[in-house]
Amino acid sequence: MPNALAYLMLIIWPLACVVMFRKLPFERAIIWSILGGYLILPPSANFDLPLVPSMDKVSIPSLCAALCCVYLFKQKFRLMPVSPVGRILTVLFVLGVIPTVLTNGDPMIFRALENTWPITFTTGYLPGLSVRDLFSVIANQLIVLLPFLLARQFLSTETGLREVLLALVVGGLAYTIPSLIEIRLSPQINIWVYGFFQHSFEQMMREGGFRPIVFLPHGLWLAFFLMTAILAAAALSRTVEGPQRMRLLIATGYLMVVLYLCKSLASQLYALAFLPLVLFASAKAMIRVAVVCALIAVIYPTLRNTGKVPLDKILEQAEAIDPARRQSLEYRFANEEILLERADEKPWFGWGGWGRNLLRDPETAKIISVPDGRWIIVFGSFGWVGYIAEMGLLALPLFMLALQTRSQRSRELSPYVAPIAIILAVTMIDMLLNATLIPYTWLCAGAVLGYAERLRYPQAWEARPERSGRSQMIGGKSTPRRRRTIL
Q1: Please, are residues 169 and 236 in contact by the beta-carbon 8 Å criterion?
Q2: How confident is the model at residue 433 (pLDDT cuts 50, 70, 90)?
Q3: What gap in Å lies between CA 170 and CA 178, rounded to an integer?
C-alpha cells in the first residue's frame, strides 16, 4: 500500500506545476509538468473519487498543465485540431465511448455449482456500466488527450520541438542515477520512498541481475524511456557543433551502456536499429521509415485476426536469441488469442472498464488472461471504434507529415521533427507487445501533428503570436522571457 508521502506528492504536484510555469519558459513548463509527473510521482497510487476519473500520476499532471495554460497564462486552448481527419478522430476518441457504456449495462456474475447438491452461490461480481458512468469515462478520455492537444498548439514550433527532445535527454540522464542504484542493489527505490513495490519482483530479475524500475510501472517502461532518450540525444547532436556536439555524443554512449544494463532486449534492438538512422539519415528518410512503422502498427490487428502474422517464424527467431525470449513471446501470443476471442464477442464497442475485457474463470472469477500489448487492451475495452480512434490519432501526425513534406527538401524541415516522428513510430511498434503508451507519447504525437498542420494550413496559425522571444503575463505583470541552455 502507498504511504502518506505517495498521496502527498499527488496533492502537491499542482503547486509544483504552478511554480514551473512561473519560473520556466512556457514550452518547458508544459513538458516538465507532464514528464516530471510521469518520472517522479508514485505509480498505482490514486484518488478514486465518485463520478470522476481516477486522479493519478497520469491524469493530475496533464490536467494541471492544461489549467495552467488557460488560467495562469490566459492562453486560448483549442480542443480541436485544424485537420478535418484530426477533428473526426478526436471526436471519435472522446465520444466513441458512449456506445461502449450503453452496450455494457449488464453485470457479470460468477457462480459456482456444488457437485453434491444442485445449489449455486455467487463467487464474483463485476458491475455493469450505467449512464452515471458516462461523465467519468468521457472525462477520462479527454484528460488522456490533453498532452496531445497541448503539444499540437504550443509545442509544434521550432522551440517547442527542440524542448521535447531536450527534455527526453535531461530526463533520461537524470534517471540513470537511480537506475544504476537499482541495478546494483535491486529495485528498492519505490519501496524506500513510497512504501510499496509496484509490480512483480520476479519480473525485475533477469540474467543473474536486476532490471531497474524506479517510479515507473515496469522495468520495460524504464528501458524504453532510456531508448527514447538515446534517440533524442543523437538527434540533438546533429544540430550543434563543437563541445556541445561532443557532450551529446558522450551522453548517447553513456545512455547506451545503461540501457544494456537494463536487460531489455526489445529496447536494445530498437536503439541498435534506429540510432544509425537518427545519426546519419536525412529527415525525409526518417519520416518514410516512421510511416512504414506506423502502418505496420495500425494494420497489425487485422493481420492477427486473419492469421497473416508469421508467429512460428517469430518464435523461431526469438529462440535463436534466447529460449527464455521464445517462452515470453509464446506466452504473450497465447494470451492474445484468448483475448481476441473475448473481444470478438463485442467487436465494435468492446467490453468497457472494470476488467470486463479480460477472460475470467466462470466459477471463481479469477483472471486467466493477461493483456500485454496496448492494442489488445484498447481493442477489448473499446472495440474497433476505440482502436481506430486511438491508433488513428497516433498515426495521423506521421502520415500527414509525410504528405506535407514530399515536395520539400530535408534541409528545409525542422531538424527536430523527424527524430520525434521516429520516437513516436517506435512507440507504436512497441505497443504491439507492451502497454507503453504514456502521456509523453501523446505529447510527441501532438507536436508532430501541429508542425504538419502549420505546413498544411498556414493561415490557421498566422493570427497566433509565437511564444518564443515574447513577454509572458504572469499575475497581471509582464515578465521577459528567459532562455537557458542545459546542454
Answers
A1: yes
A2: confident
A3: 14
Helices marked H in 96-218: 97-102, 134-154, 158-185, 189-194
Query: What is the per-residue pLDDT across 68-111, written as a single tens digit (0 to 9) for each?
Result: 998 888 777 788 999 999 999 999 999 999 999 999 888 877 66
The model's pLDDT over 138-166, given as tens digits with 9 standing for 90+, comes to: 999 999 999 999 999 999 999 999 999 99
**Which pLDDT value is given to residue 183?**
94
At 121, is the pLDDT very low, low, confident or very high (cuts 50, 70, 90)? Answer: low
Euclidean distance between CA atoms 197 and 211, whole angstroms:
13
Three-class DSSP category at 253: helix
Q: Across all residues in the chain, what is the average pLDDT?
A: 87
Rounded Cα distance between 218 and 372, Å, is 12
- Decide: 397 and 428 in contact? Cβ < 8 Å: no
Q: Where are the alpha helices (DSSP H) in 41-157?
A: 59-67, 84-95, 97-102, 134-154
Rounded-to-integer distance, Cα 461 and Cα 466, Å: 9
- Pairwise CA distance, residues 447 & 465, whole Å: 17
Question: What values do phi and psi take at 479, rounded to 5?
Answer: -120, 135
Residue 298 C-alpha cell reads as: 495500425
Q: Report residue 122: phi and psi, to 5°.
A: -75, 130
Helices (H) and strands (E) in the chain, counts: 17, 6
Contact, 385 vs 353, CB < 8 A?
A: no
Closest CA to 377 of 345, 352, 395: 352
CA-derived radius of gyration, the chain = 23
- Evaluate whether 31 touches 164 at the Cβ level (below 8 Å): yes
* CA proximity to 189, closest of 202, 175, 203: 175
| Residue 343 CB-half CA count within 13 A | 27
Are the beta carbons of 476 and 484 closer than 8 angstroms?
Answer: no
Q: What is the pLDDT of residue 392?
A: 96
- Label residues 73-101 b or e (16+ Cβ within 10 Å = b): bebeeeeebbbeebeebbebbbebbebbb
Alpha carbon distance 288, 274 (integer Å):
13
Task: Let me know the angle formed at the C-alpha of 221 by 141 and 266, rounded to the nearest 5 degrees.
Answer: 120
Our measurement of the distance from residue 204's CA atom to the centroid of its chain's CA atoms, rounded to an integer in Å, reads 21
